Amino acid sequence: MSDKARRLFGTDGIRGRANSAPMTAGMALRLGQAIGLHFKRGNRGCRAVIGKDTRLSGYMLETALVAGLTSAGMDVTLLGPVPTPAVAMLTRSLRADCGVMISASHNPFQDNGIKLFGPDGTKLSDDTELAIESVMDSPLAEHLAAPTELGRATRLDDAVGRYIEAAKFSFPRGRRLDGLKVVVDCANGAAYRVAPTVLWELGADVIAVGVAPDGLNINRDCGSTVPDFLRSQVIQHGADLGISLDGDADRVLIADERGQLIDGDQILALIASCWSVSGRLIGNAVVATVMSNLGLERFLAGTGLDLLRTRVGDRYVAERMRECGLNVGGEQSGHIILSEFATTGDGLIAALQVLGAITERQRLASEVCRLFTPIPQRLRSIEFAGASPLRSRRTQDAMIEADAVLDGKGRLLLRESGTEPVIRVMVECEDEWLLAGVMESLCNTISAVASVH
Fold first, then answer.
1. The pTM is what?
2. Could you report the per-residue pLDDT of 315-340, keeping only the tens digit for each?
3. Which residue, 15, 3, 12, 121, is CA-closest to 61?
4. 3-157 — its CATH code?
5. Domain 179-261, CATH homologous superfamily name and number
6. Which residues are catalytic?
């Protein structure tokens, strides 16, 4: 199913401004009921687990979801503030029927969102999300549980401890982080307790920042979307490495000892090459999205590895990995999926693989983490109202012309955002002058079409 077919769910669950449509308590209540009815289907003993990040609105949405799920006869286990990958892990570990994460990821505190996982800990398919929406639109009251069959809600007190141990297990056995000074920026979000603890217990000298959430400061001037903060902290503390997570810790950004940034493409290249040498990489291939740099593709090809591309969204990366039986995939933005350890993007586990490579080679992060030179790439977003400019013949002709101008020296990508009325334009080319000209021409055409609409 396409994103257009779904009313509430976007690329990564439901998201919006807290206490405004669609992110209201009323919607969360009805969603909880629909989830319960979809997964329960007359069976007894069904259970959902719910985690959240540190947003103030998480209390409101969590309470409404619990009411909806229990009214449908589903038991609920509350995890409290934990990273998104912890919810995925515990959904499987606790043999729950579904998992729910309340988070708007890297968005500011005013926003919130709801992500859903199936019993195997993977994000729900487009078809399943559409089916849940269909249940929400039906007369729910006719199908809710009888008074004697209402669900119960309990709290799992050791949820954080379970995830900490799982994360530590992913680090290479017999190796330690002793002697390494590591800055970890937790974005005042879901990993504010677990990430510093994992790194410290593995032996690192930990400088923890973004670890004082107050419900209103998640991602504020920190986290993976504010890389300059990480860079400054690494330089200020003379650290060997910097790790920056987003609000729900499913993505990561790395900074080397000089404060230079290492994105998801470089992390994928490092992990894939290390695992290939050690024989752990399955299928001699890596899954990434259409946004990953052409430089990554060329680097992998040079080492005998294939790059399989998907549409944008870590859920689509995970689906392709499962289809092809692969164990490494991710996005340029820092969603890294290592199916040996997790079913969804896990920023902390990805960072531990980077640290593992550094400790193995006993070299500086700047020498270990940059395996290829990215092809120059430019990104731009163009807002529109009404019909998408991508459907315009004029836009289609401009794309054909731009592709002819590039003539195999680069590539271009135009896509409509799954969460807002915006066209994302990406052009990459070894010739920066040519790149600039193609980008300017394309964006001018799209802007003109958008203004006509």
1. 0.91
2. 899 999 999 999 999 999 999 999 99
3. 15
4. 3.40.120.10
5. Alpha-D-Glucose-1,6-Bisphosphate, subunit A, domain 3 (3.40.120.10)
6. 105
